[in-house]
Amino acid sequence: MDGGGCVRDVVLRDAAQEDCAALAAVLQRAHAPGSALWREWSDPEKLKILLFAVASPKGRATRFRLRVAQVGEEVAGAMMSRWAYDRLGPTEAIFGDIGLIDTLAVLPAFRRHGVGRALVKDAEAELRRAGVRVAYAESTPGAVPFYEALRYRAEPEEVRAITFFPRQGPKLYTHCIGDLSEARLVWKSLTGGMVRSSVYEHPDGKGPGVALTGLIPGDARRTVPWPEAGVLGGATAAERGEGHQRGRAGTG
Q: The N-acetyltransferase domain covers which part of the protein (predicted)?
């Protein structure tokens, strides 16, 4: 496909087992050579296992979805999204206020034609229906302008962790990028309102992180419990910005 403009006949649907080979090809071709982001899902056999996980009780409990964008007979893109959950400890905590866009991949030939934007808006709508108030993702550097066009905030390259204060109990939820050095954290309020981002140094040595408040009811009264680790900036230097519900035309 050449030029810009939106694809008129894009169809969004749930992925099926027979899509695994095409999905693997999308993931292999959609990202830069050598990129570690989502590499694990470029194997058709692992994707088959993933689809069983989506349909499992745990998958249903976390609102796990794997969606396909189909143009004609071709799978042009795919996206995974779900509620955030903590896999550590004897029990798993599920955080229904927080949504993760786990993977977004669009074939190069279909970029800048609205396919990626359609997938993101589809995921946002489903997450919002499920009660999610804020969505976040790990983005490749090249995709940051795409997310920004959809009113996501992209954190600086040095930010390696993002912390939320969910309503599901007193526990914090922190997502760390880990070893994927090329990833950038992006996030967006799905409900509007004021947001605040405070930068801190993660106590586990994972580098600077951001703590977001003003997104989930009651979270503005809570603080990161490790100020002794060295808060960078603090409340007086916190950045403020508007949450948005509608995005501009994307590049996907």
A: 10-191
Pairwise CA distance, residues 181 & 140, whole Å: 10
- Structural domain includes residue 145: yes
pLDDT single digits (tens) 76-131: 999 999 998 876 444 567 889 999 998 888 998 898 889 999 999 999 999 999 99
pLDDT tens for residues 186-233?
A: 999 998 767 777 788 877 666 788 888 888 888 877 776 664 444 433
d(C-alpha 199, C-alpha 54), whole Å: 34
Sign for the pseudo-dihedral over CA of 187, 191, 197, 202:
negative
pTM for the predicted model, two decimal places: 0.80
Q: How many domains does the chain have?
A: 2
Confidence of residue 51 (pLDDT cuts 50, 70, 90): confident
Query: Could you give the 3-state DSSP secondary structure of residue 237?
Result: helix
Parent domain of 172: 133-247
Same domain, 125 and 26: yes
Q: Which of 101, 92, 225 is nearest to 165 (CA)?
A: 225
Burial label for 150, CB within 10 Å (0-12, 13-18, 19+), is buried
CA pair distance 171, 162, nearest whole angstrom: 14
